[in-house]
Amino acid sequence: MIKNPSYKLLFSFNQRIFKRILWYLKPEVKDRILDIGCNRGFYVKAMEEYAKDALGVDLDDVSVKNAVTGRVFWGDALDLNFENNYFDKAYSLHLVEHIEDTKSFLSESARVLKPGGKFLLAYPFELFRGMQVIPFATIRRKNPFLIRKIHIHNFNPNKIKNIVSGTPFSYIKSELFFTVFPPSCQYFTLLEKK
């Protein structure tokens, strides 16, 4: 078990979520695909079976050090260490709700994508901000009142559409997606770089 006070996923990989990523991004062997906020890289490792150049970045040193694949690197989602127009596709699972400057995050994600590149966002469906991190805040942080510090935003597809309007992305579509184990409800939103 990794002893780390930083935010970590309670569940590292979900096959149904991965299948949904594949459905949206339709990876090809030649694609360069980036996972932004990849934690230890479980989805990166799975994506390696579909795209020869799957990479992941995460801000947490411990997650990068304990990555499950050698294709995970330290990286700041607001200042990605890649050339312009480098990736064909990218995805970010449950990161956007933790980032204060969402427009900068989306603009930086668009910068590293090629024109026409797809970007898939996953973020929680919450009746109130922080609802889905109550177990994490209570069990791991011993303080359920931290939920609003963990989830800075409570997004839905309309809010994402409004934010996207000032970035190099076009909004394509969104869906509400459920998983049974672990039980969760989240949105997937697909964007395309103009």
Question: Brief description of this entry?
Answer:
The protein has 194 residues and is an alpha/beta fold. It has helices at residues 15-25, 42-47, 61-65, 102-112, 134-139, 147-150, 157-164, and strands spanning 32-36, 53-58, 72-74, 87-93, 113-124, 169-179, 184-193.
Number of helices: 7
Structural class by helix and strand composition:
alpha/beta
H/E element order: HEHEHEEHEHHHEE
Architecture, CATH level 2? 3-Layer(aba) Sandwich
* Approximate strand percentage: 25-35%
Mind describing the biggest β-sheet?
7 strands, mixed
Query: What is the overall silhouette?
Result: globular
User: Going by CATH, what is the homologous superfamily?
Assistant: Vaccinia Virus protein VP39
Give the low-pLDDT segments: 1-10
CATH fold label: Rossmann fold
Alpha-carbon distance between the termini? 42 Å
Radius of gyration: 16 Å
Q: For the record, what CATH class applies?
A: Alpha Beta
Going across the major beta sheet, what is the strand order?
Answer: 3-2-1-4-5-7-6
The number of domains is 1
Beta strands, count: 7
The overall pLDDT average reads: 90
Determine the fraction of residues in helical runs and give it as a percent range: 25-40%
